[in-house]
Structure formats: C-alpha cells, structure tokens
Design a protein that fits this description.
Blueprint lengths: L3 E7 L10 H10 L4 E5 L11 H18 L2 E6 L2 H4 L9 H22 L2 E4 L6 H4 L2 H24 L5 E4 L11 H15 L4 E5 L14 H12 L12 H11 L6 H13 L13 H8 L5 E4 L14 H6 L4 H12 L13 E6 L9 H15 L8 E2 H4 L1
Parallel strand pairs: 1-2, 1-8, 2-3, 3-4, 4-5, 5-6, 6-7, 7-8
Antiparallel strand pairs: 1-9
Helix pairs in contact: 1-2, 2-4, 4-6, 6-7, 8-9, 8-10, 9-10, 11-13
Length: 391
Amino acid sequence: MYPKVYLVYDNCFAIKRWIEPEDWMALIKDLGVFFVEASTDNEMDPLFEPREYMDDWAVRVMDLEKKHGMKVVNFYTGYQTYRTAGFAHPDARIRRKLLEEWHKVLVDIAARIKAGIGFSFFAIPEKILQDPGKYGETKETILSVMSELVAYAWERGRVPISVEQMYAPHQPPWTIQGSKEYLRELCALTGKPSYITIDLGHQIGQRKFIRPSSSKIGELLQRFRKGDWVDNFWLGPQSAYRLFFDAVKSSPAKDDGVIGRIEREMDGYPYLFAKDEDGDTYRWFEELGCYSPIVHMQQTNGITSSHAAFTRENNEKGIIKGDKILRAIAASYQKSAVEGMPPKCGEIYLSFELFAGNADMNHDTLRKLRESVEYWRQFIPKDGMELDRLL
C-alpha cells in the first residue's frame, strides 16, 4: 500500500514578516499550496506566547481553514528551542519544564486543530558524549521522556509525534541505523507508533564522522609530524585524540602499537561514527521514507544545509531531484514490514522549509517560493494522490 502525498508550506519563511494567521494563510494559498506546517517560531511558541493567545490562534486558524479550503497539518519547532539541550539536559527540572510547559501545551493545541507535531529537541552535551556509560543513561532518559510524551499525545487525540533526524553525533538520531533503533525502542516502550522527519539537507555532516581505517590513521600521523594540520579529521572520543597527539611526538617505529590502541579506544564509542550511506539523502528515503510522514524540503548542494529554494539556478547546482526522491520513498514501501517498527505512513507531507534572510526583499522571497511550488507540481500535480500514481 502506497501513501497519499501532499505539498505543504512551512510558514517559517514568514517569521517577523507575516506573523498573523490571516496573513500567512492567504499568502500560502496564493502560492498554490493548501496545506501548512506551522513553525512555532512564527509567534506560536509555548515558551513565549500566553496560553490564551494560543487558544485564540487555534480558533482563528480553524475559521481560516474553512474560509480558504486549507489545513494546518503539522506544527514544527524552529530555532528557539533548537538551541537547547532539551530532553538530553542533565537537569531533570529543565526536562520536566519542557515536557509540561512546552510539548504538552502544543499537543493540546494540535489535538484541537487535528494536526501532528514534529521537532528536534535534544542535543547531548560533550561531557556525556565522552562517557559511554552516561551516554547510555542519557539515551534511556530521552526515551523515557519521549514515551511519556507519546502516551500523552495518544490520549489527547492520537496526535502523531515525529522527531527530526540530524547530522552530527550530539544530535541523535543522526544515522540510518540509529534512526531505526530509536523507532524500535520507542515503539517497544509505548506500544504506540512514533516517526521521524527526514530533511533533504540533513545528510551533509555524516561523512565527516566516518571511522578512519588504520592506514588512514597512519597517514595522518605522518602528516602531523611534518607540521601539517588536517582539518576535520575524526577519531571519535577525546581519549583517541590524546593517544594520537602523543604519538605525533613519538617515534614512527611505535606507530603499529599506537594505532591499535587508538582503534580499541574507538571501539568503545560506536555511537560517534557514521557509515558512508548515512551521507546519502536517497539512501535515507530508501530505508526510512515509509516512516517519515513529514519530509522537510530544501535544495542543497550536498555540502551545506542552507534551506535554499527550488529555483532553476539552485536546481542546476543542487543534488535534489523530485522524481528521484519519490522513487526512493517508493522503494521503502516495497520492502517487507519489519517487526518492532511502526506501521508505514499512510500520508506523507512534503513540507517546504525555506528560510528568508533578514535583508531579503519580500518580492524576491515570494518569487523563490512560487518557483519552488512550480518545480514540485511537475511531480505532485494534485495533493492526496497515491505515490504509485505519481511515479
């Protein structure tokens, strides 16, 4: 069974410019899109907006949905909360405040307007990353908080919860295998489905964190001894770097033993390393597209995640091709169901997450937004069509 597919605009482009629901709703409709992802940065963050305002916002949105024939299908966090350690914070009081005063409040609003919620809301501090025992404990803490949130969301109206995949070790899930483990573990704890959000530009970092071979470590030792500094070389734990830099000052005759010790040190930190496939956007969709009801759409050159629009110029330089993305998602639906994973999604919301800079001119921004819609309407001419019909 294939999912129904929809084009969606995240109203993050409207931040500080079109902040009232009446404004961004009409503007998005004029762009030719009828489904909305509401960014909490656009005056809808529970840490800043009073509850009374949020309740009024929900009423206004529901009235506007009827007026314009549109639907807010999801909420998503923005930069405000992205800047925190969130559910990975070592202080339980902060985790509890975020759960009770942010997530549960937004769940209540989402249930009221029949929308889902997605977020990136945990970043693991460095001292925890450097301690496998504490890392394991923090992972269990995140899953415990998430299981409470999923249960609450289910009770309030089966509000779907989706966590965004990222691209560096301190922001899990950041690898394909790690994302699968996260989904299985959370489903086992809750007995309820939870999902991930794949972003088209969030595969830019993983290849920086691939574990080096012993020969590569030897090559690096030789270069550093010559006085060359190599940027972005990755050994994982700080303890491996200490061994490495001590070896730089030692005799090359001892390299075999040092390299062996470095490799054994890396063995204790598997969560710090990615595989080559983790840097492949299309591989993510082939493996996990069926578990990503929300897809964040941006054009990318594969080097930066700049949330660029799908303009002709950007598309010529970019690696994202609409038909190829749809085929990759379809490949995930063609795979057999996996025990312990959530049910495959029945709807997929391809959500443009395109930012506007503070100095960008509105007419330029709107042109880029419109051109992005025109590009993707080649592949999704009508919302709600099943994926197999689009191919």
